[in-house]
Amino acid sequence: MNGEANKVLNLETGEWGAVPATGQYYRDRGIQWVVIGDSNYGEGSSREHAALEPRYLGGLAIIVRSFARIHETNLKKQGMLALTFVDPADYEKVKGDDRVDIEGLQDFAEGKNLTLVARHKDGQVDRIPLAHSFNQGQIEWFKAGSALNLMAKQKK
Fold first, then answer.
1. Which site from 3, 17, 20, 71 is most exposed, i.e. has the minimal number of CB atoms within 10 Å?
2. What are phi and psi of 113, to 5 degrees?
3. pTM to 2 decimals?
4. 52-91, pLDDT tens digit by residue?
């Protein structure tokens, strides 16, 4: 979005900062946030900690052109939405200062696309279809906040 690694715009303060610090700022104020990424997102990040951090920092979704296979599964286990642009070129429509919503979560189901609503600073709005590969069990992980949360809930 800005051509620099680990540097994002905090939409509340207007300041640029590291992703973890910005995520923590949002989490501490109850603001959900998403990551918009390019192709093969998570390559080299097969360890679960790479998926745990966005969840810990209050992230809702990782939206990308494509995922590295293992990382996508690890995100799902952590209760994160792992979503891809139906049309990879739609990545270019999202700007670093957009406000976004994800529509369709109330009816989240296997094979049913979601929609990213990107509200641009100039007032324009883009509605962008998002795909997912969640099965019903993984959807339950998301609803519970993680696979581990679901297991603990089922044990009670």
1. 3
2. -65, 155
3. 0.93
4. 899 999 999 999 999 998 899 999 999 999 999 999 999 9
- Cα–Cα distance measured from residue 73 to residue 67, given in angstroms and rounded to the nearest whole number: 9
Among 155, 86, 94, which Cα is nearest to 126's?
94
Q: Which is nearest to 82 in space by CA: 91, 70, 73?
A: 73
3-state secondary structure 22-60: HHHHHHHCCCCEEEEECCCECCCCCCCHHHHHHHHCCEE
Tokens of 32: 């959900």
Instruction: Find the length of the chain.
Output: 156
41, 62 Cβ separation under 8 angstroms: yes
Both tokens of 50, joined, read: 């790479």
Cα separations (Å) of 34 from 9, 27, 155? 12, 12, 31
